[in-house]
Amino acid sequence: MPKTLFLLCGEPSGEAYAARVAREFRRRFPGSPMVGIGGPRLEAEGVELLLDYGEISVVGVTEVVRHLPAIRSALSAATDRIRRPDIGAVVLIDYPDFNFRVGLAAWKRQVPVIYYIPPQVWAWRTGRAKTLAKFTRGAVVLFPFEETLLRKYGVNAVFAGHPLLEELEPWLDAAPSPARFGIPAEKTLVGLLPGSRPGEIATHLPILLEAARGLSARFPGLHFALPVARAALRESILRHLEGSSLPLTLVEEERHLLFRGMAAAMAVSGTVTLELALLGVPSVIVYRTSWATYQIGRRLAKVDRIGLPNIVAGDTFLPELIQDECAPGRIVDALGAILSDASGRGKLRDRCLSLRDRLRGPGPTDAVVDMVAGEAAGAWE
After folding, report:
1. What is the per-residue pLDDT across 81-111, written as a single tens digit (0 to 9) for each?
2. DSSP letters spanning 42-61
3. What is the DSSP string of 99-144?
4. pLDDT tens by residue, 277-289
5. CATH number for the segment(s) 4-161+361-375
6. Domain range list for the chain
């Protein structure tokens, strides 16, 4: 009887990568059960969900404190499930503070742990690399420099390409199609990306909407699009849009095709900024969090830029407006400068597209499943 693969992710971007791993695992080991924490995409790949990650998808000190009961309950459910003898291996995807606890629990049970997208120790809390080496059999990383760094700490780290290139492959060179979303072809499309967590929506969407109003007054030919990261966020987004007269379209499907038609975007720092860049869309990168979280992060951070495209490029070529600078007027000025300079915008687009070559590799999904197969030999027979 084959054993069970346990997968755990804590947010939409991680779930997209986890779903690809589940699909490839199911292809190689048909009939082997999978269980874990995730969302509908993971469930659609045949993973039995212990619970939906929406209950624990939070960021920042104050949000974590408010959600502690749900987080503790989820942690208990995950560790209890891992203690059962049918678990053959654990794949952790991103979500480090939670996943480290689960990983250590699995290690104590001598269950092989593979970490896909381990924590960014190059950015802060470098000491976690030693803990990572302790409880993992392998790690598949997002960036080439991470492999070198983690191997110094004893982690069996592999860079096999960025998973976004796998995820985005059908749209990398797709022709823009604004009509598919009901957007007039003659309009200049600008994206509003307020985040994928409820707390991020509450913090950022009012700021982005005010900036959009300022841009609309300055550039009458604009149309805005707001992709809904998860269906559960739609209601809260609609509340923010009540009474708005902005030329704005909500989009819940084919977001990557939508991105291909954008001239520029204002986007909350995170995976989406790299998605946009790889699809040729320059963005103004923004982020605001609680005072306490910001102060802690500022003291611990080891990098001088926050946007993933800028980190990959090694240069802050896209504007970053963080904390107090994340204000409507500053966003209007930064994005207005991009929109008013067609030549400069073309150069930014070219720099964005050049990141594809930096992030190519043989395939991270295969690398994860190879590790699972190799480190848990015999579990799936």
Report:
1. 999 999 999 999 998 889 999 999 999 999 9
2. HHHTTEEEEEEGGGT---SH
3. HHHHHHHHHHTT--EEEES---TTTS-TTHHHHHHHH-SEEEESSH
4. 999 999 999 998 7
5. 3.40.50.2000
6. 4-161+361-375, 170-358
